[in-house]
């Protein structure tokens, strides 16, 4: 897969709401504007992939306690030059949680969003505030999988019941606009 293939996938994605409609427009514009949009060399905005990892009953989400954000979050990471963002998302899910077997509910984009990232220190270096052009994928994981955290990124991994996500997450905008959207879409698609 290359950047043009990724652009086509985003073009073909049907936005769920106004946030996705506008964010989709920005993503497509940035693909046409920047040649380094798949790497962190673009310090203003770059592609990332996230996973909404649910159990087979689809009443729990697998979340990690993120060390930098000091919050319970979904899993995900930077594309780092890879245009196949589903592949990136699955790799990150496995690295961050220890799960071995994953089942994409669909290989299509489940959600897209622009995520603001505040400036922070990572591995001793300051990273300026920037935007993640994020694609989210829906994956099913068996709750019986053995979990472990990735110490340099997160300090815990756990299954969170859907109705408790708003209590567990401390990132206000993310839980109110993204996690609630993902759960609503999941409910509508089940």
Description:
With 190 residues, this protein is of the alpha+beta class. It has a single domain (3-189), classed as Nucleoside Triphosphate Pyrophosphohydrolase (Alpha-Beta Complex). It is 32% helix and 31% strand. The protein contains 5 helices and 10 strands, in the order H-H-E-E-E-E-H-E-E-E-E-E-E-H-H. The protein has helices at 3-12, 18-33, 85-97, 165-168, 172-189; strands at residues 45-54, 60-66, 71-73, 75-78, 103-104, 111-117, 120-122, 125-127, 130-140, 154-161. Strands 1, 4, 5, 6 and 9 form a 5-stranded mixed sheet that branches. The longest helix has 18 residues, at 172-189. The chain is globular. The two termini are 29 Å apart.
| Largest sheet features | 5 strands, mixed
CATH architecture identity: Alpha-Beta Complex
Order of helices and strands: HHEEEEHEEEEEEHH
Give the distance, in angstroms, between the N- and C-terminal Cα atoms.
29 Å
Report the count of strand segments: 10
Beta content comes to: 25-35%
CATH topology: Nucleoside Triphosphate Pyrophosphohydrolase
The total of helices stands at 5
Q: What is the typical, i.e. mean, pLDDT?
A: 93
Based on CA inertia axes, which overall geometry fits?
Answer: globular
The helix content is 25-40%
Q: Tell me the structural class.
A: alpha+beta
CATH C-level class = Alpha Beta
Give start-end ranges of low-pLDDT stretches. none
């Amino acid at each position: 897969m290359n950047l043009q293939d990724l652009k086509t996938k985003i073009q073909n994605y049907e936005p769920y709401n106004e946030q996705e409609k506008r964010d989709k427009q920005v993503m497509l514009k940035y693909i046409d504007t920047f040649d380094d949009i798949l790497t962190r060399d673009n310090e203003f905005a770059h592609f990332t992939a996230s996973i909404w990892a649910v159990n087979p009953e689809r009443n729990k989400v697998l979340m990690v306690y993120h060390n930098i954000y000091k919050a319970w979050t979904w899993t995900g990471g930077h594309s780092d030059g890879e245009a196949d963002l589903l592949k990136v998302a699955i790799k990150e899910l496995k690295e961050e949680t220890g799960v071995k077997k994953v089942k994409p509910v669909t290989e299509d984009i489940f959600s897209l969003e622009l995520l603001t990232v505040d400036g922070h220190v990572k591995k001793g270096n300051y990273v300026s505030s920037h935007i993640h052009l994020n694609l989210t994928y829906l994956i099913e994981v068996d709750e019986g999988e053995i979990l472990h955290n990735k110490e340099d990124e997160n300090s815990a991994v756990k299954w969170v019941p859907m109705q408790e996500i708003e209590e567990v997450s401390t990132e206000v905008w993310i839980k109110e606009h993204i996690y609630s959207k993902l759960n609503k879409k999941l409910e509508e698609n089940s």
